[in-house]
Amino acid sequence: MGELFALCSAACYGMAGVTIARSRNQRRGDGGVFLSVLVTALLTGALWLLAGSAPVLPADGTHWRALGLFAVAGVCATVLGRLFMYRSTEILGPVGAAMLRRLIPLFAIPLAILLIGDWPGPAELAGGGLVLAGVFAFSGSAAPVGALAGLSLGLLSAASYALSYGLRKLGLMQLPDPLLATCAGASAGCLCYLGWACLYGSSDRRWTRLHYLLADRSAGFLGTALLLSAGQTLQLAALLHTSVTSVALIGALDVLFSALFAALLLRQRLQPTPHGLITALLVGLGSALLLLN
User: Fold this and answer.
1) Cα separations in angstroms, 196 against 216, 217, 225
2) Half-sphere CA count of 293, side-chain side, radius 13 A
3) Nearest-angstrom CA–CA distance, 172 and 176
4) Nearest to 91 by CA among 147, 136, 43
């Protein structure tokens, strides 16, 4: 079940990469980054309230530690990871930025071992190795990553997301509530953005920064926000049911979803090539191993 959640999350992130690229020419403020975090907080908070299930709070008070971990993970993902992802996608395009996010497992696996002792099993290593090999094979037929700024931002985004995986898994082990975890993390991210806008500089500059955060709220930016909200919530649900390694490795498939959706929506042609056939074979086998694990 966790692997299926992770696959759906990768599809949402892949689609979001395409909508970010489509909206970059309409950008007047932050490109919808704050909007996406705000929508995530409101949507998951509303769903948690509608679900009507109170979290199981440990008697020893460790839930406060879990909420703290969710908040720190939210800052890593919704502030650092998401901001860097938006900017790298605007520079490199959806496929180029998604190819850098395939490096998340290279950061996530050692962090998971360090934080929670989550060692990958043989099936995870074999399936994940095939998935990564397929994604690297795909990169041979994709546009080269040429911009140094985009490359740096993409790597920072991957490292930030990887750290958030480990922190969220550690929090979910103490408080197994994905909706609350997502809402807590996104709320912490919102506070960071608002704090940056309101606490520094003159009153005129504060209003300018607040306007910058809320300037981009058209249908395209709202669609991106909803996709990222769904992707993050599904990712938390996946972490509840499976390992950090599996979630990180399956998340690398977002580059393939980005290429598919870019071909459909941005009219970028995908030519059948040996790279493409190798990619399909490796990713298919690797995904099957992960899903059957």
Assistant:
1) 18, 20, 20
2) 26
3) 5
4) 147
pLDDT in tens, 116-166: 887 777 777 777 777 677 766 665 544 444 567 777 888 898 889 889 988
Q: Tell me the whole-structure pTM to 2 decimals.
A: 0.75
**Which are the contacts of 275, defined by CB distance < 8 A and separation ≥ 6?**
137, 138, 140, 141
Higher per-residue pLDDT: 88 or 188: 188
Cα(78)–Cα(258) distance, rounded to whole angstroms? Answer: 20
Who has greater pLDDT, 9 or 134? 9
Give me the amino acid identity at 217.
R
Question: Hey, how many other C-beta atoms are within 10 angstroms of the C-beta on 83?
Answer: 21
More confident residue, 94 or 84: 84
In this model, does residue 202 exceed pLDDT 70?
no
What letters, b where the CB count within 10 A reaches 16 and e where it falls short, cover 210-242? Answer: bebbebbbeebbbbbbbbbbbbbbbbbbbbbbb
Amino acid present at 107? F
Is residue 57 predicted with pLDDT exceeding 80? no
Higher pLDDT, 103 or 270: 103
As a whole number of angstroms, the distance between CA 275 and CA 142 comes to 10
Cα 117 to Cα 33, 62, 74, 113, 243: the distances in Å are: 33, 19, 21, 4, 11
Torsion of CA 265, 271, 274, 276, to 10 degrees: 10
Interaxial angle between packed helices 148-174 and 82-101, expressed in degrees from 0 to 180 and rounded to the nearest 10:
100
